């Protein structure tokens, strides 16, 4: 179609987080932000008062010499002070680099130097870590302990400035500049489970668009009637943008501080009338254990959004028993972070539970402006037929274009980002992760989903955590080994668990063995560390090969299982 381009005649004002802040202050000045403090006790203020503190903090940052484009590191829990850094740094044109303290000292050292952070703000919990890192942080000009005078560290080799003392000296007005929407406002590194962490630099535009789409009804779907509890940490991908989305829609924001155990979360949920909570599956399992073991229930909570790792049937059933609906989201650091949300179609809750659960276990439909495709090993784009599985690739305005200071291209030649996940897409647009490409078990030419095995194991009443890995098999290349940890005070035999799991899965996915260990290793972002498990089980010999046996094929004792394994894919 030929013809001259006719530009639209609309203002080209920029999508920056100042716009989110303005909406919060103009539309919902009295809405509350509540924090459980690191020092103990609660702190609460209104959106209007928070906005004043953001300006006060901008004056602090200017006095410290922070300039446009500078990175400032933050190592903190979900608190109002970290929220103040999000907005003050972003709105003044600097960059809030959130550091995951669980990355371990080596990675933390690497990311602070790589990002070239000018200052480090930290919660007292992390003082020992920051003090240990300091001698190797050549470009950091100073440290700020996020506390008040009464709680200031008495003796510290890094001689930190004290947050509340700095704030008290400044006025609460600051003229936010007009920024370009493509400027950076925040930064987060991937967790580095395979190689060095990689820096993801978020632009204002990406954050604003992501905040807008996460607020949609068929997404997180929260409103100014909600009180939102982000248990997902602010030090990992902007707490799924909740600190922006809540202010944008005028929802009460409840910050849990450092206490993330089941009892503390439950008490906070009830005391602050939380209606909506967000977190990774491991956190919810411990909350549900507390609620069930103590005969409690939720009185106000209506929804929880689970993401970061696969949602399990156990979590759905666990929450629904207390009248809480569960939605699943999928995303990653590189997507700002949410890519899909599995929102319910009309009439969904009229369906019987057995029909709902398989739908709820899918990762959901792409959020607006995200394009998804699945691609085979040999580069063919596969159909959305609910069967073809391949590498999940995405593109869109809140998807990474390049890692910070990347030395090789981040995207495919035709401009897509390969997520590292393996997925199928159903004809109704719902995406289903079957694995991470590096975790998938390749067995006799088929790909076995470790998620399916783990989800089945979590339904066993004695199992608290589950992870499946591939172990070498001379005939089938790899077969699944299921590793589980048991709930406190529960017992079960490995073979009993194996039979239970196999009863729920197609034969090909039935694990060849089950091992029980005390605790499954969990990484910096609350996910199972399969790399560690692979190290622990690197010399593992499947039961059929113990006592010097060799791979038995059709004549072997496992004939019944292995002989028919690959006959059909059910
Ligand atoms: P990391 O820094 O470890 O990559 P991310 O939080 O960015 O941390 O992890 C993103 C990955 O987490 C995704 O690529 C996917 O494998 C996994 N993930 C996230 N959400 C889900 C989900 N709902 N179901 C299954 N896997 C998920």
Give the key terms.
seven-stranded mixed beta sheet; binds adenosine-5'-diphosphate; 570 residues; disordered C terminus; alpha/beta; single chain; Rossmann fold
Our estimate of the beta-strand percent is 15-25%
* Major β-sheet annotation: 9 strands, mixed
Class by alpha and beta content: alpha/beta
Count of DSSP H/I helices? 17
| Form type | globular
Share of residues in helices:
25-40%
Q: Give the averaged pLDDT, no decimals.
A: 92
Number of strands: 25
Strands of the widest sheet, in order across it, are: 2-1-11-10-12-13-14-15-16
Q: What's the gyration radius in Å?
A: 25 Å
CATH topology (fold) name of one domain: Rossmann fold
Bound molecules: adenosine-5'-diphosphate
- The CATH superfamily of one domain is identified as ANL, N-terminal domain
How far from one another are the termini? 48 Å
CATH uppermost class of one domain? Alpha Beta
Low-confidence stretches: 550-570
CATH-derived architecture of one domain = 3-Layer(aba) Sandwich
